[in-house]
User: Which sequence fits this backbone?
């Protein structure tokens, strides 16, 4: 049975199990919920274990195998241009829909009184403030880490990618006999990491079962109801971007058949949906793009790790809608200047959002502080944030993969999505 069908079945069984057991069912001191948490956490840890060595080796190999600065500059320019364009389009889609639907206003009145804040809101606000969310310049400072080992240990992917790019480039500038030794080593490391990824993915259905069952058991299916309008607005905007904008780009810019790419990316999309982490999904994304879509390692090893860190279409879209929804819920009318500020801040903050679950809450706090809204407004979206996190992460990953395909085609790779 294909892996994506195994994952589909696991998700279905997880929903049934989560609804049936809840958080309290079990035998004596053994709770089914604890078993879900264990299975999900174990799988997520296994994926995260692969991230740093996989990203580092793939970037070094991708840049080192190019052989010349012209190739790196051309590929880098195309990648950055694609990511900025798609993120900006995603934000505009979110801004247009949230202004049309106005989820924060029901029957002509702000929903502040209808949607209560959580009891833990003060604690959550303190936690977000404690991360220094207001310092946007910190996003760029993290690109140049003081200690690369510490950056790897702390999962600071921007620093790892920047160091990997420098290492790969200057690897091409040394004598051939030394360069060949290092390239052979890093290519071997990358091959080993891909083998390890294949092995970890054999356990994906079990891990996905645990992750999804935990969410359903703790929130139930009623988690959407209090904020149905907000939920609908975000999901509709994500759908327009994923099933409208992306296929058009694939068809007319990449000159490939979009349906083939959707089919190729099913395992990665299901994994990203269940883990809510584009970084944890990166090993599977690389495998799907290279093996299923036919993109070369030269392109995918550069475009995808960079995209997992700076390309967050779904997150940027969500941040924009969330900020506008909170403003509407408080009964505030934002003019063009304030809305443009939201768009700009969402674009910048989405670049530095960590590819882990709920990281966008920190970015949203930056936007709220920028336009003068209270941070406690974040409490309004907590009820549905986890489920929407799963949806927007899938859009993030799919956009990364589309970028790899489009850029590969622009580089003359005719084998992409041809079989």
Assistant:
């Amino acid at each position: 049975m294909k892996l994506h069908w195994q994952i589909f079945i696991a998700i279905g069984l997880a929903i049934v199990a989560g609804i049936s057991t809840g958080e309290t069912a079990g035998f004596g001191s053994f709770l089914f919920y604890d078993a879900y948490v264990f299975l999900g956490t174990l799988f997520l840890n296994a994926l995260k274990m692969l991230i740093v060595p996989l990203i580092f080796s793939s970037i070094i190999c991708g840049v080192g195998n190019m052989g010349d600065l012209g190739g790196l500059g051309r590929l880098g320019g195309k990648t950055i241009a694609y990511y900025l364009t798609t993120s900006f389009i995603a934000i505009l889609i979110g801004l247009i829909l949230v202004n049309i639907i106005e989820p924060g206003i029901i029957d002509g009145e702000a929903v502040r009184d209808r949607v209560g804040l959580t009891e833990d809101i003060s604690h959550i606000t303190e936690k977000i403030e404690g991360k220094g969310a207001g310092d946007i310049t910190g996003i760029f400072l993290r690109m140049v880490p003081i200690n690369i080992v510490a950056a790897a240990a702390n999962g600071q992917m921007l620093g790892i990618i920047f160091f990997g790019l420098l290492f790969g480039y200057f690897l091409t500038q040394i004598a051939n006999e030394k360069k060949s030794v290092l390239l052979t080593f890093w290519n071997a490391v990358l091959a080993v990491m891909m083998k390890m990824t294949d092995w970890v993915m054999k356990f994906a259905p079990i891990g996905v079962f645990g992750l999804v069952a935990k969410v359903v058991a703790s929130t139930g299916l009623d988690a959407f109801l209090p904020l149905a309008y907000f939920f609908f607005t975000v999901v509709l905007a994500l759908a327009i971007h994923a099933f409208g904008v992306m296929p058009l780009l694939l068809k007319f810019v990449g000159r490939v058949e979009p349906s083939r790419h959707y089919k190729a990316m099913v395992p990665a999309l299901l994994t990203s949906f269940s883990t809510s982490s584009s970084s944890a999904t990166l090993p599977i994304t690389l495998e799907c793009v290279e093996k299923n879509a036919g993109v070369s390692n030269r392109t995918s090893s550069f475009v995808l790790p960079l995209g997992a860190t700076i390309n967050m279409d779904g997150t940027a879209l969500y941040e924009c809608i969330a900020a506008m929804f909170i403003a509407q819920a408080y009964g505030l009318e934002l003019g063009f200047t304030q809305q443009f500020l939201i768009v700009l801040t969402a674009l910048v903050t989405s670049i530095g959002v960590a590819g882990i679950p709920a990281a966008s809450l920190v970015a949203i706090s930056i936007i709220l502080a920028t336009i003068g809204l209270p941070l406690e407004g974040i409490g309004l979206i907590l009820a549905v944030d986890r489920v929407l996190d799963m949806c927007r992460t899938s859009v993030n990953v799919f956009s990364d993969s589309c970028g790899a395909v489009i850029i590969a085609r622009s580089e003359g790779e005719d084998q992409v999505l041809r079989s």
About this structure: The chain has a mean pLDDT of 78. Residues 3-410 form a domain with the Proton glutamate symport protein fold (CATH 1.10.3860.10). The chain has 18 helices and four strands. The longest helix spans residues 32-64.
